[in-house]
Write a structure and sequence with these properties.
GO molecular function: RNA binding
Protein name: K Homology domain-containing protein
Organism: Carya illinoinensis
Number of strands: 13
Radius of gyration: 20 Å
Order of helices and strands: EHEHHEEHEHHEEHEEEHHEEHE
Structural class: alpha+beta
Keywords: Repeat, RNA-binding
Shape: globular
Strand order of the largest sheet: 1-6-7-5-2-4-3
């Protein structure tokens, strides 16, 4: 039996030069059998996928042949402020749709962050807990082979026990677009072999409410609180690398305004040159209820995660 925390991550330190992997040769039955994949997107990214009047999502469906569905506004995956995209169809159609969506996200990130944006980004897939064993394999053999084949980092999260009845786990893929697409191809082909995997297709966005919520108190320490305590105003400060602060602010302040509007938190970013002591990290102060702070911090960390892991908590 696999452990509750299964983490196998390839080393991203040195750039790798390699020929593209040979195409996978699954059986014709598995390629033609309808299946699906789900992954997380920010609220802003969801709007980008939909497009004006639904033009983008219609175009992507037409190009790929797959069906693309999104959870409603404010309908988030438990413990996050991210919406859910489900893409269904044959494996080939799904892969075409996923690549169209991820390529659009990357082009928009590069437009905001310029040449400094790290080409390695993250995609978080949603996989039923019962299907994770097939991805991991005996002694981790399958997931290790997927990492070796795709060159992507692959990490499977434990179940979040704060949500009674939650049976899905997040599978985080780290790499460039080609590496991520190869990993998704391998994973979805494996999932399609699991007869129980298709059962979640009927209720892709149905999740239980939390029993309690994890957030940060005034001193930055983690703790649980009941919903009737969330009206108290608190403040927490995090540090974000100076060269990545633009990803948090966004063009014309768009990102930081969106985070404030979605979460209800007030966000203040220190002036240029005003760093956390001993670092070159700018101070980002978040003020509001426990829930607002936690949600805003999660959204900020997601923005920065595309470029760097250097978000730190100030005690």
């Amino acid at each position: 039996m696999e452990s509750t925390e299964s983490s196998y991550v390839s080393s991203p330190e040195a750039p790798r030069k390699r020929s593209p992997p040979p195409p996978k040769s699954p059986t014709s039955d598995s390629m033609e059998k309808p299946t699906y994949i789900r992954f997380l997107v920010s609220n802003a990214a969801a709007g980008s996928v939909i497009g004006k009047g639904g033009s983008t999502i219609t175009d992507f469906q037409s190009q790929s042949g797959a069906r693309i569905q999104l959870s409603r506004n404010q309908e988030f995956f438990p413990g996050t402020t991210d919406r859910i995209i489900m893409i269904s169809g044959t494996i080939n159609d799904i892969l075409k749709a996923v690549e169209l969506i991820l390529a659009k996200f990357l082009s928009e990130i590069h437009a905001e962050g310029g040449d400094d944006v790290d080409p390695r980004s993250k995609v978080r897939l949603i996989v039923p807990n019962s299907s994770c064993g097939g991805i991991i394999g005996k002694g981790g053999s399958t997931i290790k082979s997927f990492i070796e084949d795709s060159q992507a980092g692959i990490k499977i999260s434990p179940l979040d026990n704060n949500y009674y009845g939650l049976n899905d786990r997040l599978v985080t893929l780290t790499g460039n677009l080609d590496e991520q697409m190869r990993a998704i191809d391998l994973i979805i082909s494996k999932l399609a072999e699991d007869p129980h995997y298709s059962q979640s297709m009927n209720t892709p966005f149905s999740y239980p409410a939390p029993q309690n919520t994890m957030s940060y108190g005034p001193n930055g320490a983690g703790g649980k609180f009941q919903s009737n305590k969330e009206d108290r105003s608190n403040s927490v400060t995090i540090g974000v690398a100076d060269d990545h602060i633009g990803l948090v602010v966004g063009r014309g302040g768009r990102n930081v305004m969106e985070i404030s509007q979605v979460t209800g938190a007030r966000i203040k970013i220190s002036d240029r040159g005003d760093f956390v002591t001993g670092t070159t990290n700018r101070k980002v102060t978040i003020t509001g209820s426990h829930r607002a702070i936690s949600a805003a911090e999660s959204m900020i960390m997601q923005k920065v995660a595309y470029a760097s892991e250097r978000v730190i908590q100030i005690d």
